[in-house]
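FAQ

Q: What does a record look like?
A: Structure on top, sequence underneath. For example:
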């Protein structure tokens, strides 16, 4: 009993410590906003020098160089050469599902069991997480909240990062089902793990992937029935895979693992996305032929095997770009996502152009997540998800985000870390 009480008190203390009562969602956009004299990075590779952009009622109404003079009912923002970007989108994150990794009571990203497609990560999303604001400060305005644990832990949803609750945050609900494919490599602690795939590991891999294949076959047969004697929630949850309303994100890295994912796409006629894709550069032509997109995770990392070039993770994005494979970048985790723009900047020094790198964290991500009709680029008719920076958003040395808008709402860019910085500047007389 004492242990239970202490755990409860710890959880309450953490919740109180993480509260940010002065940071709350912005009201809907009021006046029309006219941005002028800006360098506008559209997100589709196009750059407008001394460009202009207008948005009203949360939607972009015009983008160009020679726009009509703003009316008296609007607010003019003369940026004097500052940079305007589409909001960065963070895929494959447990943001809002965990707060303090060491405190179990704040972790809600996994459920018991191997196959739980009916679990919805969206309803567990915590809009009061202090971590959310640290991402917004770096220009990340949307995120794909993704479950973990088991082989099929549930569905992910895209949220916008300025909301009172998960209902307000929902941007696209349950757009993907996730399959965490067991790795063919032995655990990291095993000697020689990089050099061989053991017989036991191969057999376990075949057995586990066989379970998922059997589940999908059963689900497909169930969904082809006109009537059911009983409703199966797990089968109902993957209905969208077979109607192409959902995508299957297969988390894997090795070539043999990715080829199994390609087989899944062919066998079941579903849209598959590779999540991870460390070795995707090796089979880029196969992925292109089968229209398989890739979410490259952990671009700042060591290569997967000793035979790879030491800088291979940095070069993979450019190799996929050259092969014509649709890809985007992700950092996984939750607080780590705040560095996503800078990792795109690194990719721009290893073969991508700056605008291609920007597309890899904006429009490409939107395409993969199925939200590109609404966001991902600064085009007329899309949501006004906009970031303004005095410098290059992809360069941590010069990026200073001064304004950000989500669906036209000007959001608060303060966060707990900034507050602590100001607090101790005051304490030591540095203000």
């Amino acid at each position: 009993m004492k242990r239970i009480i202490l755990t409860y008190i710890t959880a309450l203390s953490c919740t109180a410590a993480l509260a940010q009562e002065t940071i709350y969602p912005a009201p809907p956009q009021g006046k029309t906003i006219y941005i002028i004299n800006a360098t506008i990075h559209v997100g589709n590779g196009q750059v407008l020098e001394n460009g202009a952009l207008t948005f009203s009622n949360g939607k972009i109404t015009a983008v160009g160089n020679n726009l009509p003079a703003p009316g008296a009912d609007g607010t003019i923002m003369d940026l004097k050469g500052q940079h305007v970007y589409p909001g960065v989108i963070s895929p494959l994150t447990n943001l809002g599902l965990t707060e303090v990794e060491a405190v179990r009571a704040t972790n809600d990203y996994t459920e018991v069991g191997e196959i739980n497609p009916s679990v919805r990560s969206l309803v567990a999303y915590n809009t009061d997480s202090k971590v959310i604001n640290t991402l917004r400060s770096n220009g990340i305005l949307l995120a794909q909240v993704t479950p973990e644990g088991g082989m099929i832990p549930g569905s992910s949803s895209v949220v916008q990062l300025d909301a009172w609750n998960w209902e307000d945050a929902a941007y696209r609900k349950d757009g993907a089902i996730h399959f965490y494919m067991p790795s063919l490599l032995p655990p990291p602690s095993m000697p020689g793990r990089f050099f061989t795939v053991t017989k036991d590991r191969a057999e376990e891999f075949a057995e586990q992937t066989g379970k998922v294949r059997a589940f999908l076959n059963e689900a497909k047969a169930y969904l082809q029935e006109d009537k059911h004697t009983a409703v199966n929630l797990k089968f109902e949850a993957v209905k969208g895979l077979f109607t192409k309303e959902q995508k299957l994100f297969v988390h894997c890295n090795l070539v043999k693992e990715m080829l199994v994912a390609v087989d899944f796409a062919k066998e079941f006629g579903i849209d598959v996305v590779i999540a991870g894709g460390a070795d995707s550069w090796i089979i880029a032509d196969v992925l292109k032929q089968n229209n398989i997109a890739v979410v490259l995770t952990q671009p700042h990392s060591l290569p997967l095997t000793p035979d790879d070039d030491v800088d291979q993770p940095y070069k993979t994005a450019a190799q996929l770009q050259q092969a014509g494979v649709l890809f985007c970048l992700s950092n996984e985790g939750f607080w780590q996502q705040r560095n996503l723009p800078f990792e795109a900047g690194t990719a721009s020094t290893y073969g991508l152009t700056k605008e291609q790198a920007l597309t890899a964290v904006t429009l490409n991500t939107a395409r993969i997540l199925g939200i590109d009709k609404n966001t991902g680029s600064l085009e007329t008719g899309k949501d006004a998800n906009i970031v303004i920076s005095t410098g290059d958003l992809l360069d941590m040395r010069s990026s200073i985000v001064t304004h950000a808008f989500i669906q036209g709402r000007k959001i608060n860019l303060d966060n707990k870390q900034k507050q602590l910085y100001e607090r101790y500047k005051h304490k030591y007389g540095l203000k």
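Q: Is there anything notable about this one?
A: Residues 149 and 204 are 17 Å apart (CA to CA).
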